[in-house]
Predict the structure.
Amino acid sequence: MEADVLVVGFGAAGACAALQAASQGLRVLAIDRFTGGGTTAISGGVVYAGGGTSVQRAAGVRDSVEAMEEYLRAEVGEAVSAETLHRFCAGSAEDIDWLAGHGVPFEPTPCPFKTSYPNDRYYLYHSGSELAHDPQAPPRGHRAHAPGTSGKALYAPLAAAARKAGVRLRGQTRATGLIVRDGVVRGVRCRTLESAPALVRRAHRVLAGYAAKPGVYAPPLRRRLGKLITALESRYGTEVELTAGHGVILASGTFNANRRMLGEHVERFRGSLPLGTIADDGSSVRLGEQAGAATKAMDRVSVWRFITPPSAFTKGTLIDSAGELLCGANRYGAAIGSELLRRTDGRGWLIVDEPLLREARGQIRAEAVWFQRMQFEFLVRRKGVSAPSRAALAARIGVAPEQLPESTHPMHAFDISLRPHLLYPWPMLTLGGLAVDEESGAVLDGQARPIPGLFAAGRAAAGICAHSYVSGLSIADCVFSGRRAARAVATTLAKN
């Protein structure tokens, strides 16, 4: 049966697009290289939302669309127009209710301290640099309610709701090309394992699972597993054509796992920890380019260098290798990483005195989860320089004494440089993608004209977070842009 809309990629953006389309009466077929979930399922499961969401209200937190928009304007820059940013903020509370209505669990317990990711006692937190912008800013990081990292708790209900709504998912099916007839995108050519032996399909699923985790933390392992997966697809896959009567929505993520594309577009990525799964191979961009699509912000990346928890470190001082102020220590980790990336050598120090370090040690057990405790111990035990005075510390790290904060106590400098290490990695996420019309999500060609029948959502498209990133903004944009594209397809169908 021909579908009205075909969704390529079934992570957060694809699931939201499919679910929205199905709710508007469209016949939806989704395909995924694996079995769905993508990077969303291995993420922290955080949605950046505000303006007075039901979760914020239940937590006794006051927020407004205007306050959210004012903060994000500084983060988003020129990634999208002011009108699009306003629509995103104005619809934020409704998006949270829409997610909750489809089973995504949220919990209104605000985190009382600044952290890169809250422990299992807290599910609403300051996930960006809001407190540096306004000390009274409300928390907007809505973490799905589940122990550990909460990505699966966010994705699984969406996938279940989509299936219940009639969305058909063909897993282990990889899009290889677009079907274009009379200038209109009518479907995709695919390579699928649906007819492969059961043992091959099982091996493909198992390898993909290990490539996602622990592969995300070990890029060499992920690459080796990726080669095995590709070999299975090449040997046992069969070619099929899938058509869609009214639209194809590309939603297969970033190009973090494509080293060739990284080399072409990203100046500095070697030594980083590219986030995502091996399905983040830039396939949506390559498919779009086959139809003449333009791209945007392909050189933009988000690099993360977290120093919290412990929250006491937000009172420290961040400097570069020349002793110049890096940025405020209460900024989000991506803002700190961005400032380090701007420095030619990528080097920097966190400066604290002895009382502040004692305060930090007293906080770490209550504030951190296991991997945060591990990073803290690595930072203070392996990456620290100590001295009895400001002058002595300055001499040891090669800066002028007056560039360091004053203190009558022993002082410490912790090396936060962008250097590869398994226990203190610097994660990286590409932010650019296909250029799209901001009202419909239609993919644009080189003359900024919509390509008939082709849409993009999530990190396959340049969207809200194409300039900079705060935790939860990517998934929030997946919801926003996925639903936007589905509405546009439904509108096209209604007009016809």
Notes: The first strand starts at residue 3 and ends at 8.
